[in-house]
Each structure stands twice: as structure tokens, then as C-alpha cells.
Amino acid sequence: MLRHFSRSLRFQFLIALSGVLLLALGSLGALSKWFIFPALHKEEQGIIDQELKRIERSLVLAQQELLVQARDWANWDDTYEFVQGNYPRYADVNFSPEMLKEMRYQLIAFFAADGSPYFLSGLVPHTGQFASCAQPSGECDWMAPYIDTMQRSIKDNPDQQSFLVPGISSPAMVAITPILRTDGTGPNVGWLAKMRLMDEQWIAQWETLTGLPIAIERLPAPQREPSIRIEGDTIHAQHLLPTSVPDMSIAIGTQLNRTHYLASLDTIRYVLIWTACLMLFVIGFVLWLMERIILTPLKALSVFARQASKQDTNLDAQSLCRRGDEIGMLARSFDQQLTRQRELNAELLNLSTHDALTGLPNRRLFDQQLKDAIQEAVALSQPLAVMMLDVDHFKLFNDHYGHQMGDECLRKVSRALQRVANDHGFLIARTGGEEFSALLPGTSADSARQIGLLLHRTVDQLKLPHRASPVSAYVTICVGVSSLADSTDILPCSLMSTADQALYSAKAAGRHQVMVFTPSLDPVHMHETPHE
Questions:
Q1: pLDDT at residue 234 tops 70
Q2: Domain residue limits, the chain
Q3: Biggest distance spanned by C-alpha atoms of the chain
Q4: What is the pLDDT of residue 521?
Q5: Helical H runs in 483-522?
Q6: From CA 10, how far away is CA 295, in angstroms rounded?
Q7: Which domain of life is it from (predicted)?
Q8: Which candidate in 51, 434, 528, 532 is catalytic?
Q9: Backbone torsions φ then ψ of 402, nearest 5 degrees
Q10: Confidence tier at 339 by pLDDT (50, 70, 90)
């Protein structure tokens, strides 16, 4: 009896469902470990990188703003005259502690043409006392490290520039620009440098701008990789930025809340747990329903099937589908599956015979059609022509515009070629990267030449820009034409070889033209059809 139970459908169904349950639970665990949780972690890492980049972008904007302000002062005729000693009241008129505080400048330095300090003005760190000097000494001795850094930068790069310095009390940003007349004429008579401290006040404004808490500190610079530290539901992210001192960096840090990540993680866990519980419930419910809904009707269906087999072994499928019982349901399901399978087979056939990028027939379909067309042309003594087309200098197009634009170019060219093929009733296929082939049954070489010229003009009319092409400012094609009469035998490869020779000659002659294969001439002297 035990042996009979182990071979029964009930036992096999139980074993199968148990195996499915274990497999599903294992799959859920593997999916969570290798895909879901890593994806959440990757998303969180992306948010961290995005926020750090947003902070860096705001810093870059602040540096650009300081550089613009420095350039406005440097390209001012009064400044130009001041550095040359022609405007002695310039400093009294333009510099005051109120101005420096309002503009948040810590130091404004003017340098002569030889790079030496000319005039210095700033606010003493910690005290905020206003100081103006000609040299970084005395009450301006705190400026000396900054002035040295500015002079080195002017010496290394005399053009306008902005950079960060570690600073003494806090990091600072510096902008340096040459001093010129307002209209940009005249020689460079010196340099103007502005420095703004990245102190607590500036950081507070930066936090208001970015909406993130920001911390800045000076650190040695052994590496440039971001530092990320997680404490509970808070992420501490830090990124090192280079300064004017090679062995020092400015560490910009922020804190991010992991609430979204943790909520997503909890949601995924709850979904997995409920999914597992639901699967257990479904397994138990299916086992309960098996006896009442499946096994009993299945026995009746088996009896009916045996009786139907004895009465008529050639039952009409349509009559089975019209039945309202379980047999009708199974028959209709089978018919639907069969119909779907035919649709999938048709889709598979289309995918195997058409190019995925352009939708044109591919080489496989072209070769099949060519073989059949040759046999038909020979049997009926009809003409047959083929063409090989190539986009001129397409590699240069890809190198100049990128592969994405190259794919779009091929799609546009393909659509244009297909319209001509539809209008004239011939086959156009993509048989290579930028190579196309055409099959023209019942067409002579001369008629094929006219169609080749039409394809040639159609692509010209697209006016697709191709600045890298030495042939034309737009995308062009060259065409090689051959006919069955030009081939030494009726093999497809021989026929396409003559078209390929014609295409080669079109390329050798400068591209952007149509060549017709002429057996009486060598490939270099084939008949040339100039492009229009």
C-alpha cells in the first residue's frame, strides 16, 4: 500500500510542490542577497556620490563667482592706473573694513608686473582689524603665507586662475587675474588677487544653499577617494579636494540620513517574508484543492477520453473547443497555446532574418532570397541584378559623432533606402556594419544603375551632416552594381563578388558615386557613373 501511495499522483504532487517551495525560498534568498540588497546599496551609494558632487559644484560656483569679481576689479581703468602709480587716492576711495566685510573678502592683493607685492589690504583673522600695507610685514605679517602662495601661482600660471589654500585659521579660496584696461588693450601691468575665507559664516551660507550640513577640515592628502562612514541611520561622507600645498587637502564632509534606505530595506524584508508565507499558504491550499478540483474531475476526464477514443479516433478539434466542460477548457487552452506558439515562431523567424538596428532583412535572408532569385532567373531566362552599397567613411562618422549617432545615421539611411526599395519592388538588406545589399529580380544592369543613382540621390537629399568626411559635408554612399550576365557562373558568391568589385572601384575612384561592373575591363577601370 505504501508503494502504491508513493507512485500515486497525490504523492508526486506533494513532492513536486515541496520541491517548488524549497526552490522558490532559495531563489528569494539568492535574489535578495545577490540582487535586491546590492541594488539598494548601490542606490544609496549613488545618492551619496550625487550629494558630494552637488556640494563640489556649489563650491566651484563660489570660486567662479570670486574669480568674476576679481576680474571686474582687474579690468578697470582706475585699477590699471593705480598699479602704475597714477591714482594715489584709489586705495582711500575703494578700500574700507565695511567693504571687505560686506563682500566677505579676507584679503585683496595687488602685484606689480614683476610679481612683487604692490598694495595689500585685508582683515586680520580672529580680530577683524582692517590693515593696508605695501609689503606683508608689520601689521600685515599674517598675509605673508598667502602672498607667497599667490606669487608662486602667478609665476607658474600667469593667466587667471582660482584655487584653494589650507589657510591658517580656516581654508580659503583664492582668485587671481591679470590687470588690464577695461577695453582689454594695453600690456598686463600686474595681477589682482582676492581671497575669501571658508569660515563658519561662509559654511553657514553654503549649508543654506545646498540644504546639507557641511564640515570642512584640513588634512594630509595621501589619496583622493571619498571616505564614507555609516553610524546607525546616519552616513558621514567626506571628499578630499586639492589645495595649493601639494601635501595638504581640504576635506569636505556632510551627513546624510539613511531613512529612505532603511525604510526600503525593511519594506523588502517584509515583502520577502510575506511572499514566503503566501507561498506556504498557496501550497497548502493547492494540496487541499487538488483532491476536490483536480483529481476527481481528472478521473472523469480520463474515462471520457477513453470512451471518446473508442468512439471516434479523429475527433474534430473545433468541436472539442466548443465544449463547456473540463475537456473543452483543456482543448481551448491547448489551442490558445498553439496559436501563441505560432506567433512566437513567426516573431523568432523575423528576428532571425531581420537586422535588429534597422529592421531591414539581414544577410541570412538576403542569401536565401539571392539563391532562389538566381534559380528562378536561370529557369525563366530573366535578368537579375544585385547591388552592394556602403556608407562613405562611416568609421570617421562614428569617431566624430559617437556610436549612438552612428546608429541613428544607419537607421535614417536604411529608412530612405527601404522607401526606394518599396517603390520599385526590390529587396534591400543590411549585410554588414555600414554595408547594404540589394536584390533586383527582372532588372537589367542598366536599369539597376538607374536605381543605384536614385538610391545615391536619396541619401544625398537626407542632408545628414558628416563633417569628418573628406568626400562631402553630408553623409553619402557609393554603390557597386552587377548583373547575372556579368558573373562567370550562377553561384551567389560569384554574382556578389562582381558587385563587390564594382563597389571597390567606386571607393578607389573617390567614393560618393555609382559603379557598374564591366567584365571587359579590369576592376580599376570599371565604368564610372559620376555623382550628381
A1: yes
A2: 2-47+273-306, 58-205, 316-352, 363-529
A3: 122
A4: 43
A5: 492-508
A6: 8
A7: Bacteria
A8: 434
A9: 100, 155
A10: confident
- The C-alpha atoms of residue 394 and residue 406 are separated, in whole angstroms, by 8
Say yes or no: do domains 58-205 and 363-529 share a fold.
Answer: no
Mean pLDDT for the chain? 82
pLDDT digits (tens, 9 = 90+) for 345-356: 777 777 778 998
Its sign, for the CA torsion 128, 129, 133, 135, is negative
Q: What is the total residue count of the chain?
A: 532
SS3 content of the chain, % helix, strand, coil (to 5): 55, 20, 25
pTM higher than 0.90: no
Q: In what order do the strands lie in the sheet with 477-483?
A: 427-430, 435-441, 384-391, 477-483, 514-516, 527-529
Q: Say how many C-beta atoms besides its own lie within 10 A of residue 323's C-beta.
A: 14
Q: Has 434 been annotated as catalytic?
A: yes
CATH number for 363-529: choose from 3.40.910.10, 3.30.70.270, 3.40.50.150, 3.40.50.20. 3.30.70.270
CB atoms within 10 A of CB 430: 25
The residue type at 459: V
pLDDT number for residue 44: 77
**Residues pairing with 162 in the sheet:** 175
What is the rounded distance in angstroms from the CA atom of residue 295 to the CA atom of residue 300? 9
**Alpha carbon 226 to its chain's center:** 24
Residue 282, amino acid: V
Q: How many CA atoms lie within 13 A of 306 on its CB side?
A: 5
Q: Which tens digit of pLDDT belongs to each residue from 3-53? A: 554 556 667 777 877 788 788 878 877 887 788 778 877 877 788 888 888
In angstroms, the CA 511 to CA 35 distance is: 51
| 425 phi-psi bin (left φ>0, alpha ψ -120 to 50, beta other) | left
Structure-block grid coordinates of residue 504? 571597390
Q: Taking the domain 58-205, which CATH number applies?
A: 3.30.450.20
d(CA 234, CA 244): 32
Among 501, 418, 425, 499, residue whose Cα is nearest residue 455: 418
